[in-house]
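Reviewers of the previous submission asked for a worked example of the structure-prediction workflow described in the proposal, so we include one complete record here. The input consisted solely of the amino acid sequence. No template or homolog information was supplied to the procedure at any stage.
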Amino acid sequence: MTAAAKIAMSSVAPSHRQGGSTRALLTPSSVGTTSGFLGHIELAPEEAITEHYHPFSDKYLYLIEGSLVVRVDGEEVPLEQNEALFVTRGQRHRIENRGNVSARVVFQISPLAPRPELGHVDTEPVPHPESTPPKVGG
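From that input alone, the workflow returned the following structure tokens.
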């Protein structure tokens, strides 16, 4: 039996590439996951995660704090504290904090893409292209 693997959010450098602050926490590279990965996003008021999609994976979102609007294939879906949202693979989505307090969301992406670079497709320019994407694999 393998011991449980634990990761502190403070030990993972955030990525700001798509906007906000994204940390990939439980990943193939950090704890050896094989079926998906879990992370955390924090968005200050007026911040957004730019539109993108996952060709091989579904996304599960759970809002811990604040409120968000998630645009899924152009449709606005409001998400309030303690609500969850499922985004099917291939659906374009953009996460926006239109509120006046920070929003914190936990996300799960599953199953994994065949290779990390195939897992995410940007559909609009990212605000910080010089920033490293969250480290998931390899």
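Residues 28-31 form the longest helix (4 residues). We consider this example representative of the routine output the project will generate in years two and three.
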